[in-house]
Amino acid sequence: MAHTVPAGMDRKEAAAYLQLDSARLPRHIAIIMDGNGRWARLRHMPRVAGHRAGVASVRSTVETAARIGIPALTLYAFSEENWKKRPQTEVDFLMRLLCRFLKAEVNTLNENNIRLKYIGRQHELPASVRREMDEASEATAKNTGMLLTLALNYSARSEIVDAFRSLAEAASRNGGLAHMEVDEQAISDHLYTRGLPDPDLVIRTSGEMRLSNFLLWQLAYAEIYVTPTLWPDFRGLNLLEGIEDYQKRDRRYGGLATGGNGSAATRRTLTGAKR
Ligand code: FPP
Q1: Is residue 150 in contact with ligand 1, taking CB distance under 6 Å?
Q2: What is the set of active-site residues?
């Protein structure tokens, strides 16, 4: 378990990192960033102040994930429902914040060898935002380190609908619907996340216990970590804590517990120890 602490970590992060088994890091972490509005309300500030503060959390989380060698990180920034159900002023603010973030962070992404991609129905976003998105992803396209995916105007159900449409179109180009092959691999290959491993760990901030239409297909076997921390208070250290919790889990994929006596959780229950 002994490993070298990656450069750039502070004392607390280094201590948390040393608790981790670097050979069993999640290959893909997905995060539902939640609680910006509550963070602002607690401070008697407008909701958008929570979104603005959330940018520092994105920066810290992305940097820490890249430093410790997480291959893929996906952040749920903006759902299809957000777009339809929030006041226009808040939506406009989020779009401006995103554009500013994309412009400001390209250099840092390149310094950390991070490639940027998006999932979601991009064609429904304003053209000016799409332009910034394209510029930022093109500027980082040659990087070979972590893949950072921003879910923007994203809905898992829409993604599955789009996957079926894409499967049907591919079949009709290739001899007709009679040739359409539908199995799990074919569906995965037509999702926005094609080529990415499914997330091993999904983190949700602010204590809410929902998936909120996020990566419903891909999260089938993910470990779920819910923290009461509101997104604007979340930092790289919290990410490391989530990974530590993940490494204590006994992943069974529908099979039996590993280790003769069952999982640590089962053993604790049988011996009556506190959980
Ligand atoms: C959920 O909090 C958060 C969002 C809908 C937006 C997420 C945006 C950011 C973190 C800003 C920066 C992101 C990027 C990629 C630049 P909420 O408003 O639903 O909070 P609440 O549940 O407390 O009201």
Answers
A1: yes
A2: 34, 82
